[in-house]
């Protein structure tokens, strides 16, 4: 968590800055106790308490009594009426949607199976219809939705919200996805890579919450990573940072969708794993490989373990470059638990540069298979600017849906 | 999904059916393995529903064999189909609007303890079945008339799970549903497969078919006209087989022919 110095200047501008800091921090974590808020903001407990009281009176936040390590505490969340946001994950074979509020509470969700190589027009149309349906399901209207976060299994250029590498998602790379959806729904849309969203979710709400530098590895149909440096996702100039699925591991190796040879995805991607099992186990879906591995099928377990070791080797390289405190592993393959994680962890530990400060930990995503879609929700919430007019017209704090 | 030397759960061999001058089915083959969704697609009148009716004992084939676990069987009535572990959801659902969810699930096969109807056990099983399907139906006591079209389809699919079937036939389960209701039904179909059942899915919607099926079998004018691996086949190749157009593969190979000088 970053510590921000209060802005210099007059007393009232200082108070405004502190108030903003508290709201931003609550928005970032969804819900914190006043003590945690004081730790996260660096403000004194008395200041936090005063600000929370003001914000409560203005209807910006809600408080509820809770317990932290056996003591009574005041949990602070943003008031629900501040608005809703939607998170969408467009996967290779599934569409996932969640609707949540500013406390990051998911209040409705939906999954739709998708065909392989689904078309951009059909899928975006379905996203729009499903978002409207989810909003209606909770008795709200689209006006209550401050924004929509969308995750894609491809590198995304943050400035345009378009897929930045040709060939990875054929048909999708020429479409302005954010624009299509925001035109359709009339709400701001923020598009990002799914591994980056997983990283946002895990570093905000999940396993990496305590750490400022972490890496989220997504082992799924393809492999990717989201890099968090100093609490911020590092995307790179074209959004390809952390695309470990396209690190060369085989020489010369098979041809990859990206145009290079021997990429990690050609060795541990879903089609590579399925092809290896085709002769012995018949044509399986990735879901079957995961389920069979969990059920103790040795062939599937072996394929998953070898994938873990290979991914771990590449993640070790990323570990040397970034020096994170924690590697969080998510994606479908991570549902096999230690079957994937142990060889991955061993490969990371073997190849990373050891230091005397802290060992590099490798853990499973605590948000599980929902990490990416929750990350999409968090992205939409964090990208939304809330108009704060606590001093003058206290009742006028409304929904700010500015892009 | 299957291992190479598995015996299919259900196997149709050379099925034929005539209605007067109409050849509804000619020499149709179909295999369904456990833990697999086989989609049956085709134009109107291609014979999809006729196949479904033969599997579920509504129609008896004129020619051909039906095998279950490799053994030849006859399915003269829907009751016989049920006894063989085959459950079917027809397009028109056949549910009772005035009864609640549990009563609909057990309609015609209510459980009894002694001479008394065992409502408690039925409700327990109903809850379990709906949970197995990840269904979003709030209560097993809601009358059917209060449910949406999609939720009714969920009830109809859940009904097939009563009595532990091994093969489920779904005739156009997503027709006339909204996208979110379709999402529910497709999720149910995935669950049926994950529960180890063999599923025959009849549908017009290529998106839905390619989303959840493992293999796609195309019927055209009552005949087999292609079998595809759903994970790799293109939309166009299936449409070509349905409409009888030369397949894209044929077109591709023509394109590669040397141009005559």
Automatic annotation (TrEMBL), chain A:
Record-linked CDD domains = HTH_ARSR
- Top-rank lineage group of the source organism: Bacteria
Short name of one Pfam family: HTH_24
* InterPro entries hit by this protein: ArsR-like_HTH, ATPase_NBD, ROK, WH-like_DNA-bd_sf, WH_DNA-bd_sf
Family to which this protein belongs: Belongs to the ROK (NagC/XylR) family.
What is the name of this protein?
Answer: ROK family transcriptional regulator
Species this protein is from: Cellulomonas humilata
UniProtKB/TrEMBL annotation, chain B:
Among the Pfam families in the record, one is ABC_tran
Domain of life of the organism encoding this protein = Bacteria
The record's InterPro entries line, in alphabetical order, gives: AAA+_ATPase (IPR003593), ABC_carbohydrate_import_ATPase (IPR050107), ABC_transporter-like_ATP-bd (IPR003439), P-loop_NTPase (IPR027417)
* Species annotation: Cellulomonas humilata
Q: Name one GO molecular function term.
A: ATP hydrolysis activity
Name recorded for this polypeptide: Sugar ABC transporter ATP-binding protein
Q: Which Gene3D superfamilies is this protein grouped with?
A: P-loop containing nucleotide triphosphate hydrolases (3.40.50.300)
Q: Write out the entry's keywords from A to Z.
A: ATP-binding, Nucleotide-binding
Where does the sequence pass through the membrane? none
**Which segment of the chain is annotated as a signal peptide?**
none
Outline the extent of the ABC transporter domain: 10-246
């Amino acid at each position: 968590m970053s510590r921000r110095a209060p802005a210099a200047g007059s007393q009232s501008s200082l108070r405004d800055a502190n108030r903003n800091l508290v709201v931003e921090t609550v928005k970032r974590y969804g819900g914190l106790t006043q003590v945690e808020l004081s730790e996260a903001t660096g403000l004194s407990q008395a200041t936090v308490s005063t600000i929370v009281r003001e914000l409560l009176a203005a209807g910006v936040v809600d408080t509820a009594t809770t317990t932290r390590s056996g003591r009574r505490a005041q949990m602070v969340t943003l008031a629900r009426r501040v608005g809703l946001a939607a998170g969408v994950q467009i996967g290779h074979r599934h569409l996932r949607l969640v609707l949540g509020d500013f406390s990051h509470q998911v209040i409705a969700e939906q999954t739709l199976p998708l065909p392989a190589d689904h078309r951009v027009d059909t899928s975006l149309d379905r996203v729009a219809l499903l978002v409207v349906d989810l909003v209606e399901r909770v008795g709200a209207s689209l006006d209550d939705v401050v924004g929509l976060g969308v995750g894609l299994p491809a590198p995304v250029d943050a400035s345009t919200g378009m897929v930045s590498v040709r060939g990875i998602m054929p048909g999708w790379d020429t479409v302005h996805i954010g624009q299509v959806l925001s035109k359709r729904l009339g709400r701001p849309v923020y598009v990002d890579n799914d591994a980056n969203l997983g990283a946002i979710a895990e570093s905000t709400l999940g396993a990496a919450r305590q750490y400022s530098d972490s890496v989220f590895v997504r082992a799924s149909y393809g492999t990717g990573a989201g890099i968090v440096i100093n609490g911020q996702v590092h995307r790179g100039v074209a959004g390809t940072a952390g695309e470990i699925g396209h690190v060369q591991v085989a020489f010369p190796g098979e041809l990859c969708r990206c145009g290079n040879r021997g990429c990690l995805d050609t060795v541990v991607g879903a089609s590579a794993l399925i092809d290896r099992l085709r002769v012995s186990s018949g044509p399986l879906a990735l879901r079957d490989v995961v389920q069979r591995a969990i059920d103790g099928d040795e062939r599937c377990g072996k394929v998953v373990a070898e994938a873990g070791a290979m991914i771990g080797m590449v993640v070790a390289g990323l570990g040397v470059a970034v020096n994170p405190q924690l590697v969080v592993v998510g994606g479908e393959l991570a549902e096999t638990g230690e079957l994937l994680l142990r060889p991955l962890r061993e490969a990371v530990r073997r190849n990373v540069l050891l230091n005397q400060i802290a060992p590099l930990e490798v853990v499973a995503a605590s948000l599980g298979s929902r990490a990416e879609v929750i990350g999409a929700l968090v992205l939409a919430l964090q990208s939304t600017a809330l108009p704060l007019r606590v001093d003058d017209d206290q009742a006028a704090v409304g929904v700010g849906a500015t892009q | 999904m299957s291992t190479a030397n598995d015996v299919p759960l259900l196997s149709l061999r050379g099925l034929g059916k005539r209605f007067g001058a109409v050849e509804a089915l000619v020499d149709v083959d179909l295999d369904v393995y456990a833990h697999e969704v086989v989609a049956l697609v085709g134009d109107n009148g291609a014979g999809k529903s006729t196949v479904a009716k033969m599997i579920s004992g509504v129609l008896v084939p004129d020619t051909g064999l039906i095998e279950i676990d490799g053994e030849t069987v006859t399915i003269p009535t829907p009751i016989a189909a049920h006894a063989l572990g085959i459950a079917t959801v027809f397009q028109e659902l056949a549910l009772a609007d005035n009864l609640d969810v549990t009563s609909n699930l057990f309609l015609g096969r209510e459980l009894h303890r002694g001479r008394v109807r065992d409502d408690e056990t039925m409700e327990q099983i109903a809850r379990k079945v709906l949970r197995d399907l990840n269904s979003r139906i709030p209560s097993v006591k809601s009358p059917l008339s209060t449910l949406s079209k999609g939720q009714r389809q969920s009830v109809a699919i859940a009904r097939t799970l009563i009595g532990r079937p091994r093969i489920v036939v779904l005739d156009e389960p997503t027709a006339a549903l909204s996208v979110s209701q379709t999402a529910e039904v497709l999720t149910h179909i995935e669950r049926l497969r994950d529960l180890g059942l063999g599923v025959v899915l009849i549908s017009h919607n290529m998106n839905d078919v390619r989303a959840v099926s493992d293999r796609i079998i195309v019927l055209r004018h009552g005949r087999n006209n292609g079998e595809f691996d759903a994970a790799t086949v293109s939309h166009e190749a299936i449409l070509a087989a349905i409409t009888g157009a030369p397949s894209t593969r044929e077109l591709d190979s023509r394109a590669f022919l040397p141009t005559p000088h």
